[in-house]
Predict the 3D structure of the following.
Amino acid sequence: MPSVRSLVGLLAAAAACGAVAFLGYCVYLDRKRRGDPAFKRRLREKRRAEQQKAEERGVQLWDPVKNEKFQELFLQEVQMGELWLSRGEHRMGVQHLSNALLVCRQPRELLKVFKHTLPPKVFEMLLHKIPLVCQQFEADMNEQKCWEDEPD
């Protein structure tokens, strides 16, 4: 009668052989798939179709000209906000700083900087202003979209 130890060893050996056979089969199929000229052709066609769909929708992931304009606008709004705050005009300063937050690529980081650099009263005003600026931005975008959608 076989012992439990030899039975466990036999099962472990069978499992190891099965795993090696499975991995070998996977490698075989992968090589066969990659070596198939039709596979490469289908893959190229699929990538071209995806690229054409993206171009048809007008999607461009990174536009350096737009990026530069946003950066200039961001710096201008921060400078104007600092200028108004230095003059004691907190409302105008907060308006410009909230505009800067709107075009900033990392608004959370900018809020952290503002929290440490702005007086607490001004920072609270800024936090209350953010939802209003976002609503105004959405309204402006919807209005712009309506103008673009209207036929001439």
